[in-house]
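#onboarding

Welcome to the new folks! Below is a worked example of what a typical request in this channel looks like: someone posts a single protein sequence, and someone else replies with the predicted structure as tokens. Don't worry about understanding the tokens yet, we'll cover that in week two.

Example request:
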Amino acid sequence: MATRPVPRNDALCRRNLLPLLLLPPLAACGFQPLYAGGRDGTMGPAEADLAAVDVGIIPDRSGQLLRQALQARFERGAAGLARRYDLNVALFISNEGIATLPNSANTRVRLIATASWTLKAQDPQRTTLDTGVARSVDGFNIIDEQFFAADIEQEAGQRRLTQALADQIVLQLAIYFKRHPASA
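Example response:
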């Protein structure tokens, strides 16, 4: 009895092998993951420096959300580390109506958030190490005569904005710490 060969999907095989073929060239050019830790499970330099950042008070409810998001990202498994840096953030959120009915009522609102931040060392001179800006845009719909729903949507939009801003700020700080290991 003759057996038939199983057909191979060459395109599928090539697609699965492509990432494996790209790894050696990336390692050869010095590519390293930003948050890479040690092989023994210790924190990497950028992660350890992020855990040493103390976030200052940010006014208003959206500022509180941003501060909580930043603290959660900084303290990933590194609670109890001594603080060596202060992060001060100025948050500004504006909104604009982008869909308007003939009676001038808005049906869609765009939220635009800008967070300017300053990283300072906790030395006697309070040395400014780095500054940056993070921006994010979101929006929500206003359904006719559903004002409570609009309030809930606005708060959800602010929460999404602060999460996106926190991600950007943490990434910018991790890049700074990766480039300036002597400041650690």
